[in-house]
Amino acid sequence: MAETIPAIQILGELMAEWNVATCRWLLDQPVSNSGRLKTMLREISEQRGWNWEIDLVPDPDPVLSQTDQIVASADSQILNEAERWFNLARVAIETRIPDAWIVDLSRGGIEGMIRFFQSLFSRSLSLWNL
Q1: How far is residue 20's CA from residue 12's CA, in Å, rounded to a whole number?
Q2: Which residue has the higher pLDDT, 123 or 2?
Q3: Cβ distance 86 to 57 under 8 Å?
Q4: How confident is the model at residue 10 (pLDDT cuts 50, 70, 90)?
Q5: How far apart are alpha carbons 81 and 58 in whole angstroms?
Q6: 93 and 120 in one domain?
Q7: What are phi and psi for residue 100, nearest 5 degrees?
Q8: What is the average per-residue pLDDT within 59-86?
Q9: Same domain membership, residue 91 and residue 36
Q10: Widest CA span of the chain, in angstroms?
Q11: Is the dihedral of CA 117, 118, 122, 125 positive or negative?
């Protein structure tokens, strides 16, 4: 939870800078900490005056996949199905945490990933003949 509050603040500050009128958070109700996260989001948004709607829903995937609004999600199925989406996490990290260590695994396929990990752990991986 120590990282959660700063992360919420970063996301909220970015959306405030972009003049986002309303942000609707759909949290997966069956996930154990969703209730606690909802409370944190509500408290921080009220303190900062951000217009956020925070809902616990049994399954947010169909709602997010079918909306005509912009979706910020890391779920690949939602991103494949959503009409409009935005990589909010990437922008937040790149703009607010410039010294973050980011590993781009999207280039080079599996061979690129193996080379990357070999460069980090050459002794361990060489034992496995990768």
Answers
A1: 9
A2: 2
A3: no
A4: very high
A5: 19
A6: no
A7: -65, 140
A8: 91
A9: yes
A10: 56
A11: positive
In the predicted structure, residue 75 carries a pLDDT above the cut 90: no
Residue with tokens 């945490």: 97
Residue with tokens 């990768």: 130
Say whether 98 sits in a helix, a strand or coil.
coil
Q: What is the mean pLDDT of the chain?
A: 86
pLDDT of residue 107: 67
With beta carbons less than 8 A apart as the criterion, state whether 37 and 27 touch. Answer: yes
Is 114:128 a contact under the CB 8 Å cutoff?
Answer: no
Instruction: Name the domain count of the chain.
Output: 2
Is the domain of 10 the same as that of 65?
yes
Amino acid at 21: A
Q: How confident is the model at residue 123 (pLDDT cuts 50, 70, 90)?
A: very low
Q: Cα(52)–Cα(46) distance, rounded to whole angstroms? A: 8
Domain enclosing residue 10, as ranges = 4-99
pLDDT higher than 80, residue 86: yes
| Contact between 46 and 81 (Cβ < 8 Å) | no
